[in-house]
Write a structure and sequence with these properties.
The chain is of the alpha/beta class and 441 residues long. The protein has a single domain, classed as Purple Acid Phosphatase, chain A, domain 2. Helices cover 32% and strands 23% of the residues. The chain is built from 15 helices and 17 strands. Strands 1, 2, 4, 14, 15, 16 and 17 form a 7-stranded mixed beta sheet that branches. A 7-stranded mixed beta sheet has the order 7-8-9-10-11-13-12, covered by helices on one side. Strands 3-5-6 form a 3-stranded antiparallel beta sheet. Strand 14 and strand 15 form a beta hairpin. Helix 3 packs parallel to helix 6 and helix 13 packs across helix 14.
């Protein structure tokens, strides 16, 4: 009979107890982090993925829509319901590329006439491809995140409207070939948009995406504007998706929604808000408020009339302008409102690597991941840019600035460009400002 060493037994028990304690501590830390942190996924303009011309059936080197589907699968696979940390998805608009009408009935009746534009005339004849290729692919992608149980909101962009036309009095330059035209008023005139029947067909308030969903809390104009509520990181949040350059009637609707959910930290997503210089300024080429001021507000008007007025709005997301920018301004209550642009639609490295002779903007799988952390003091949002195609963050890619900086931010250094896609937002005063919305209360 052998006698076991009692000292060794004690040491083993002590080590086992220590390991168990460390394991429990690690688990508690992980749970605490999960309770105080979550990620908001921002889907930039996806129009070039879904463009029917960028598919193999039309002679393109690959099906660009596959990159869009891959992007949505990545988001769904990292959702809270699938063991990840993505709790909400905000899409900044321009979901698809083409329109189905020359002009919508409302604008025609109000006398905002058409200047002949042969290029846009051809685009409006592509209704079959839009309805049978582009819209179904968009639906397929958002069905993936819907099935993952992710709440989401989509703001319509100018390409999501039923019609785009050259406004009478601002004609395109007919003396130049299409390949010679620049994106200026002198060459392209001024464009306007109208009609959201196609958008409502996919993202309307009565579609399967949103019908009877408890987190889809309000809509206006059939879902052209919408509001969602979600809980994450120990707080209840409100998200409002607005049509492009929303009119005063839309702003009145937003104020009613805010009044219904007072004190909730609110995120506003709209298509056209910041440009790449961080200015609240529209492109002259498509300035809806300039052409139709009774029905549209530009970004500065949106800021002055709505966003800075309401203290619960703390974050604004947008796309439309090719590139990225950030600014933070204090509202009328003295609290910061963080405004973030991300639009990667002109990134065409994937097409180059696929053998395309001329660089074509696709998007290269890039999206924004904004991780909120309320365990820190102050709370923070870590903004990172990730490609579901390359499987890497921007900061991990050696040639990131080489590929994209010159076209998006030529005045920046490489270091500045990398910093514009990988940075931290301090949420100073957030916990005091939104104490009522904390689930701990």
């Amino acid at each position: 009979m052998t006698i076991k060493n009692p000292t060794r037994i004690s040491i083993h028990r002590l080590l086992s107890a220590s390991c168990l304690a460390l394991l429990l501590l690690a688990c508690r830390s992980a749970i605490a982090f999960a309770d105080n942190s979550f990620t908001l996924a921002v889907i930039p303009d996806t129009q070039n993925y879904i463009d029917f011309r960028h598919q193999k059936a039309k002679g393109f080197e690959f099906d660009a829509a596959d990159l869009f589907i891959q992007q949505m699968r990545y988001v769904a696979g990292h959702s809270v319901t699938n063991g990840g940390d993505i709790a909400f998805v905000a899409a900044v608009g321009d979901v698809w590329q083409h329109q189905t009408k020359t002009i919508d009935k409302d604008h025609l009746q109000r006398g905002i006439g058409i200047e002949p534009n042969p290029v846009l005339a051809r685009r409006s004849k592509r209704a079959n491809e839009v309805l049978n290729i582009e819209l179904p692919r968009a639906t397929e992608g958002y069905r993936i995140i819907s099935k993952a149980g992710l709440p989401f909101g989509v703001a319509p962009g100018n390409h999501d409207y039923d019609a785009t036309w050259s406004v009478i009095g601002y004609p395109p330059n007919r003396q130049k070939k299409w390949s010679e035209l620049t994106r200026t008023v002198e060459d392209l005139g001024i464009l306007h948009v109208g009609g959201l029947d196609n958008f409502r067909r996919v993202f309307g308030d009565d579609t399967p995406f949103f019908r009877d969903k408890p987190w889809y809390v309000a809509s206006y104009r059939g879902g052209a504007n919408s509001a969602q509520r979600f809980s994450a990181g120990g707080y209840d949040f409100l998200h409002i998706a607005l049509e492009m350059s929303p009119g005063n009637d839309v702003l009145r609707w937003v104020e009613k929604v805010l009044a219904r959910y007072p004190g909730l930290p609110t995120i506003v997503t709209t298509h056209d808000y910041l440009n790449v210089a961080g200015e609240r300024r529209a492109r002259p080429l498509i300035d809806l408020a300039r052409i139709d001021p009774e029905y549209h507000n530009n970004a500065e008007q949106l800021w002055r009339k709505l966003i800075r007025q309401h203290d619960q709005i703390f974050l604004v997301l947008c796309g439309h302008h090719h590139g990225q920018s950030f600014r933070s301004d204090k509202n009328l209550h003295g609290n910061p409102v963080h405004q973030v642009l991300a639009d990667y639609q002109e990134r065409g490295q994937v097409a180059v690597q696929a053998g395309r002779k001329r660089r074509v903007g696709i998007g290269d799988g890039w999206l924004r991941l904004m991780t909120f952390d309320f365990a820190t003091s102050p709370a923070t949002i870590t903004v990172r840019t990730f490609s579901s195609h390359y499987g890497q963050y921007s900061s991990d890619m050696d040639r990131y600035a080489d590929w994209y900086r010159a076209k998006e931010q030529p005045r920046m250094s490489d270091a500045e460009f990398l910093a514009a896609d990988d940075f931290v937002i301090r949420l100073d005063g957030f916990k005091q400002r939104f104490e009522r919305a904390s689930q701990a209360n």
